[in-house]
User: Fold these one by one.
Assistant:
Number 1:
Amino acid sequence: MFKKTFMFLTIFLIAFLLESTKLPDYFYFIQGIPRALMFKLENRLLVLIFFMILILIYRKKYEKVFSLDILKDKKMYVWITVTLVCVTFLKQTSIGFEDTFGLIRLPQLSTLHLFFLLLNVCLIVPIQEEILYRGLLILVPSNRLRVVMLIISSITFALLHTDPLQIIWLGLGLGVLAIRFNNIWVPIIAHSIWNLLVTYINL
């Protein structure tokens, strides 16, 4: 059990280094888009390639975790909705409900910039972060360690954001969804919806 957990923690550290290491300039293949909009896009793509290789190697062993059959489960969408509502409430409770809560904001971006922003925050970021934090740290290790790994993954996830005391609620919510359905696509969908909402609404 601990050997398996150690192995996947090592994989997590490799993926984390791929995500956080500053890449040489020739890796930045998208020109003309402000770096602030891209959120380490090239780093994230490297991590995704790394994960794709691992999935090809271990796909039979963890086939259920990546099964798309979960998308047919109507209860899953109810769980996602309730979880995101709870996360929003807990987040706002922890910081005090602001006067701007719920206000719609429209990013002043060109169509191209907006496309890359949404592609990044609604597709690439959720897939990469959920495989890294909920997949490797919660779904892959032993079931007996899932509660402990839920806390560890949520804290790690939160500390890598600028507002950890708010984001930790999101990490816990996504972790609960991953454990409840034993499937990585559930937190990916929830994370994507969350990112889409916070892009346009002050939650």
Note: The mean pLDDT is 86.
Number 2:
Amino acid sequence: MMPRLETVAFDSLIVRLFDRIDEAHMPWVLAAVDSIREALGELALEVVPSYTTVLVQIDIKQLSLPEARARLSQALMGLEPRDGEAGTLHEIPVWYDVSVGPELPLVAERLGTDIDEVIQRHTARDYSVFALGFAPGYGFMGLIEEAMATPRLKTPRQKVAAGSVGIADRQTAIYPAPSPGGWNLLGRTAVKLFDRQREGYTLFRPGDRVRFVAIDREAFMAQGGDTTPQPGVGSSRPNGEGRS
């Protein structure tokens, strides 16, 4: 596998590794990040991994883009995936309830089953954190099982409560702060994903894994969770919007 280098700005390159999303790709993406940082050191101002690519912003005052491209081409030759489990495993307690997860019945209907089965299936696997974006601390995770894939809401909500856990297509995520959003909500967590007192600010890093654990209302409240019902239930027809 030979990564492709693409110029995306006067000071930035994209290292393209794959053309589709797959959890098995994360060890390759993280290995590419290691190789890039080793090759460029402080001359790489930003190294941002994503689903299938790594964005590299170069300090062009000290290194030209052609020189950076040559260094990266050399560094990425013979790239091998990172050994062992990638990242940290985070167990995230979630209160699954229609008051805070209004699309639970919708997903159950799509599966031809009940809400309890939706919860069981959402908590049955670990999810890879592919990328961070949309809002500070927001991690795009996947992949949920194909049968649970549900299109984004046709009409996004104007405000989604902090801690809301949702799915869209084959991805799942947690809203770290109140914000607009069009994902299908299944529940809510009291875990804080973005904290200025935390080193690095965000709980998740690309390559981490997340395991959702179902808890009851009392446990959620004991953890400081907000039980205010989620208003503004939207339509579940797809609208072609971006990743949130």
Note: The longest helix spans residues 26-40.
Number 3:
Amino acid sequence: MSNLGFRVLERKSNIDKNIVRAYKDVVTPHISDNLNRLFAGGSKLRPYHKEGKLLGVAITVRTRPGDNLMIHKALDMAEPGDVLVVDAGGDKTNAVFGEIMLRLALKKGITGVVINGAIRDVNAFSQSSFPIYACGVTHRGPYKDGPGEINVPIQLDGMVVNPGDLVVGDEDGIVTIPNQLVEEVLEKANKQAALEVEIIKSIEEGTIDRSWIDKTLEEKGCEF
């Protein structure tokens, strides 16, 4: 019988590196729109790094608030190209990630970290291009007792993340793409990007059609 709540599992799925690289220039709004706006990581998760896009495959961690034992274990397990995605309950009482862990992550080739909780040593992150998103900052350090789980489904402010999902983060926030949908969403997001180029062009040329606004108002019974 497994020790539910205190266990380390292997990730069973991964994503072709070429597909991951193809998302390099895809912005989170185009991804989100083509997931019907249901896969957002929540506005509480904000970037604390100087610059740089977060992109990689999720290794997930669920830990009790204020404890980073299982985060350390996940750092040791992670492979180059992974993104560490941690559900620490959104608690900001104790930081669960700091500069030493940042340096470990860089050494391992991890491409970013998402913490549904707090970080510390924020100056080190603000001067780095290593992508990190968190709920907040506190100088109070973590406990290292457990329990926790690695490579299980977690949630960040309502967004479910499974191990092996694709994680993308930019200035607008975090979004994850279910492993089995990465190719379909990529195609749709690229089509949307091309469409928006044409829309911007029509704005500049003064040819944009805005009749949809009055049509929508009329359909909804608005008097004007």
Note: The radius of gyration is 20 Å.
Number 4:
Amino acid sequence: MIREIENRRSIRKYKPDELDRKLIEDIIYSASLAPSAKNRQPWKFIVYQGEEKDKLVDVMRNGINSEKTTHELMPEWAFAIPDAENTVRIMKEAPCLIAVLNTNQHTPFASIENEKRIVEICDSLSIGAAIENMILTATGYGLGTLWIANTCFAYNELMEFIGTDIQLTGIVAVGFADEAPVKRPRKLLEEIVEYR
């Protein structure tokens, strides 16, 4: 597993080759094995390929265009919209997109009480572990992935398209990489570890 951790890269260019359903199911099965707070297993995965994937990408594009005009959801992050627009290009190129939902939560744009916020954080940590399992399993199969959080710029449009009110945590792009990025620098252990 250390090899997969070392070899994992965020892939932003994909070959058009479709993925075998068994590969996708193995990737999602590995997600289901992740640890979760109180064993809540707050995840649901929706796989988009072909025409349905193209529709999802169009919804993402339209939502970002709307946010670019209104700045309704993320006004302080308007500077990041060009990056979100590049994400649309990546999503269009990737042969498979997996939407990751938090079944115990709703929109992240609503205020909630402190206790519910703590539960939401715990669920988000659980889903993060599930996504990491997916990404590392995909890496082990020689696939590339990108963990997409720019869905926040088109959140309402995406939720309407998906047809649910449970929380969209993000999307994972999966496919055969058409690039080989170098390993990005990481902080030294001395910078991030403190012993007491």
Note: Residues 114-140 form the longest helix (27 residues).
